[in-house]
Amino acid sequence: MDRTSKGFYRRPLRCQRNDLTRRVCWRAYLHPYGSLNPPTPPLEKLSIAMLTPQSADFDALSIQHDFVPVYRRLLSDSLTPVTAFRLLDDGSPACLFESVIGGEKVGRYSFLASGPIKRFAAHGNTVTISDQLSGKTEQLQSADPLETFRSHVKYRVADVPGLPPFVGGAIGYAGYDVVRYVEKLPNAPLDDRDLPDLDFAFYHTLCVFDHVDKTITVVSLADCRDVGDQAQSQAAFAQAAEQIDQTIAKLSQPTAHTPDELTTDKPSPPLNIESNFTRESFGQAVLDCVEYIRAGDIFQVVPSQRLSVKTDVDPFEIYRSLRVVNPSPFMFYVRTSDCILVGCSPEIMCRVADNVVTVRPLAGTRPRGKTEKEDKALEKELLADPKEIAEHVMLVDLGRNDVGRVAQFGTVELTEVMVVERYSHVMHISSEVQGKLREGLDAFDALKAVLPAGTVSGAPKVRAMEVIDSIEPHRRGPYGGAVGYIDYRGNMDTCIALRTMVAKDGVVYVQAGCGVVADSDPNAEYEETMNKARALISAIEITVARVGS
């Protein structure tokens, strides 16, 4: 063993990256009886492992790393993610991520956390950094807030075997208007909600449900940045262990929630839904887009309308309804200091894992069939539709171009081509594009290259965004941006903020767009936006009927 600059001896490390950490994607579980909450026995009695790593091993890891994950694994059969979230929720910023693949296949992981240690938010070029523990706030001006954000996630994290792909870092959203940090779009619409363009909270203690192993991993990142000797190392270990113990104590509380009756056909009071377009003005906006296309300015563009509903319903109750109405690959509840995002997105925005960038364009839609035979017939019809195929190919080419901006030469490839993906209510054509990041580039460069996705903007992208700015009355905010996490290892997993509602000050906003091409019909495009918003509106209606307005 050799003596280190921190004053004690280095032990040889034999930790190897667990295979799970190579797969950076949300994997979760939608329990068919998630609202039925049985009495919760004390979780301390269900422990199937002591703290990992053990104290002596932790000392060796703390020498070489800024953060060391410490965890304890418990049986999970007495809790659901929804119940656990309620037990941990203290009203501070919090998040819950779940996933269902194909409308019926459960994913592996659910992630939930509350009580972040820090918040990073940017509104235009004004950056606000808040220490949630001390209450101190710093405000500064930044020419590129994404570059400033990057400096807050550059740390060395120890690889500890047996952990899920995400063990802590920044969780939040990068809104559609973050593109203005990269592209000069001169005519921004009115910002009527005063929401941050970029809003991430840093969580160092998480609960991760593994629905294959039927366990909960409670993991806390031990802060070793100031460790200089063994005593300081052990103090960092003890602090992480205390966070884990406190979390387990909260999860061990008896729950007072009773099962809720759920019916999707119970009448609810009619919702007063407002839009920032009339049907006629949206139709005119579509015709304006068609004129731009016929003039050769653009090939395709995605205008959107924003619906709003005044309601006092708890957004978490809406999330509970939404996960039943429209289970999706990316389901999330993210509460920030300014608003709450509730979503069921079908589409990746950008994923970076082990320096590989992945985007997965979805374009081309049909409803699910009522029978297997009808389902297959609709799939065949979708793949034979020349308009749908042309639009999909155009957006795949745009995705290849986006990835190519940050990838090593010769590494961009189509790993899947025109695969039909099935969801609970619809099916989409999807393709997957991957590329190896160029040396010196990271997840932030990838995010800059792809945001916003062509599926919410158009092609060519910059000119399409200029057209959107000219016809939409308000800034999009989170809609069309990215929701997800960026960890300290440089990995990122984000989805596009589609099928996403934003709750702020007693109003729930739902936004949806349509892909306009040269032969688009204004009435059909208007109906497409309303159809896309329907699952979210239904979730609000079901919640109002279930718990009242």
Keywords summarizing the entry:
549 residues; alpha+beta; Chorismate_C; Anthranilate synthase component 1; aromatic amino acid biosynthesis; magnesium; lyase; twelve-stranded antiparallel beta sheet; 27% helix
Topology:
Blueprint: E1 2-3, E2 9-10, H1 55-64, E3 67-75, H2 81-88, E4 94-98, E5 100-101, E6 105-106, E7 109-114, E8 118-123, E9 126-131, E10 137-141, H3 145-150, E11 169-174, E12 198-203, E13 205-210, E14 215-223, H4 230-251, E15 273-275, H5 279-294, E16 300-301, E17 304-310, H6 315-325, E18 330-335, E19 340-345, E20 348-353, E21 356-359, E22 362-367, H7 372-383, H8 386-404, E23 413-422, E24 426-436, H9 443-450, E25 458-459, H10 461-471, E26 482-487, E27 492-496, E28 500-504, E29 507-513, H11 522-547
Ends apart, CA distance between termini: 66 Å
The beta-strand count equals 29
Could you list the spans in which at least 5 consecutive residues all have pLDDT below 50?
1-49
Percent of residues in β-strands = 25-35%
Mean pLDDT comes to 86
SS element count, helices = 11
Reported for the largest beta sheet, the result is: 12 strands, antiparallel
Radius of gyration: 24 Å
Overall form: globular
Determine the CATH topology of the domain at 48-254 and 268-347 and 453-548.
Anthranilate synthase
Domain Anthranilate synthase component I N-terminal: 77-218
Cofactor: Mg(2+)
Catalytic activity: chorismate + L-glutamine = anthranilate + pyruvate + L-glutamate + H(+)
Domain Chorismate-utilising enzyme C-terminal: 279-532
